[in-house]
Design a protein that fits this description.
Structural class: alpha+beta
Number of strands: 12
Shape: globular
Order of helices and strands: HEEEEEHEHEHEHEEEEH
Distance between the termini: 38 Å
Number of helices: 6
Amino acid sequence: MRKKTLAVSMTAAVVVLTGVVALAGTWRPADLMARLTPAALRATPARLSEVFPSDPAFQFSPPEPGSYRLNRFKPAPDGTVLTAGGTRDRLHQLIDGKITLISFVYLTCGDVDGCPLAFSTLYDIHDASAQLPDLRQDVQLMTISFDPERDTVEAIAAFAHPVSSDPASAQKLDWQVLTTPDTAALQPLLDGFGQVVDRGGADDQINHLLRMYLVDRHGMIRNVYGLGLIDPRLLMTDVETLLLEEAGK
């Protein structure tokens, strides 16, 4: 069971804490939904966040999609990564053209407020995306290991197998499970995203701040989520806001 803390209590607080700018008087009429592009906005239900139940751990309701604008923080860094299939690639090539939710993780993490929470949230989004089959054209999920010595290609392939072998995977969001060749290749990615990692922990544990990043299809970081804000409803509301921005709404 996921443990979530530090929930904010008001929609206005969410708008402030997630680095967005509210826009008065820009509520999206429901009858425009069928005419919006990209394809994900023609999917049902009317709001992407509606496929997720409200969680008592999050004492807020997400703002209306498109009622605010997400800041452009900085470009996402580029670097060499390895896919679960063993292919060496560049991160920019993998995120180019899709809105991407990215989290840095490591597979042996035991902190319930760390990687397991990120994995759980991404699994929730991945499973629910079967109800939004058009979404996969525009959006993807991504995890990048910050423990390349243990999270080898073989290890991440085993982790990714339930996702890649899912019979319904063609209807769900792509989930790219990545590692790096070594810590030297990893460090520019950590520095560029601002992901803090401390390798001085006992019992081979790696201390880190849980973060999830929203990157638009042009490679710009548009939001950063920490503990207490990693709610699928909020994440998908921000995704829908980016889609509306692209559609000029």
